[in-house]
Design brief:
253 residues; 5 helices; alpha+beta; elongated; 5-stranded antiparallel beta sheet
């Protein structure tokens, strides 16, 4: 017997390393918690986190139009209680001593001697401004809440509210400007705070009308789908060819 080269008990041959056994065909590891299922089909090319949808420009334009209408309506109602124009009559133009004046407002028209008795009559221009402001506020609510696009008559109501506010403010402004045509020797007309407030309200109503009309047209164009060629359909796979029946065999005599 051959003596061992090292003293001590003989440990025997070295143990071979453990080799992992190959899994059988068709076997998959159990899914981990929170991970994708191994049995799910592979994701399509380019799969990942969905992109954030871009903002709707029509919705942003509706919110801007609604804010313009509300601000214009408030200015229109506030200007109806302020002085639109004031005319002063002079006896002697050189001395500039006023003796007679008229004050025009949207709800009243006052005239009389300075320091004496005055006479006031009611004007209905304020009623026009109030009506236009109420309709404009209703249209602004539709625009700010997004109902202007969902209702069947929403676009017509929103554009109509902006146009009505524009028409009423422009009409009252024209009446105030008409008072200046009587100016001449011994008479002078000046505009008051109500005129300038009403002018700003008219500009806001004009801007709201333009933005609302453009947003309505843009949304209508976006929803209109042009007619195109019919979609291509993949034909169904054909079955196996039909084999003709074999001729009968005649036995030989």
């Amino acid at each position: 017997m051959t003596e061992p080269t090292q003293p001590g008990p003989y440990a025997g041959p070295p143990t071979p390393p453990h080799q992992p056994t190959a899994p059988p065909p068709g076997w998959a590891p159990p899914p981990q918690q929170g991970g994708p299922s191994p049995y799910a089909p592979p994701p399509p090319v380019g799969y990942g986190r969905p992109a954030t949808p871009p903002g709707d420009p029509a919705a942003a334009a509706d919110r801007a139009s609604g804010a313009l209408l509300i601000l214009g309506a408030l200015l229109a109602v506030g200007s109806s209680f302020a002085t639109l124009d004031k005319s002063v009559q002079y006896v002697d133009e050189a001395e500039k001593e006023p003796v007679y004046e008229t004050v025009a407002k949207a709800w009243s028209y006052t005239s009389g001697d300075i320091g004496g008795e005055t006479e006031s009559v009611t004007q209905f221009s304020g009623l026009l401004l109030l009506l236009g402001a109420l309709v404009a506020v209703a249209a602004a609510v539709l625009l700010l809440t997004g109902r202007g696009r969902r209702l069947p008559l929403g676009p017509a109501l929103t554009v109509g509210g902006a146009v009505l506010l524009l028409g009423t403010t422009l009409s009252v402004l024209t009446e105030a400007v008409n008072d200046t045509q009587w100016d001449g020797d011994g008479r002078t007309t000046t505009f008051g705070a109500g005129f300038y407030l009403l002018g700003v309200a008219c500009l806001l109503a004009l801007a709201a009308t333009v933005t609302t009309a453009l947003a309505t047209r843009r949304a209508t164009t976006a929803f209109a789908v042009p007619a195109g060629p019919p979609a291509f359909t993949v034909p169904a796979p054909a079955g196996p060819p039909v084999q003709p029946p074999a001729p009968p065999t005649v036995p030989r005599a």
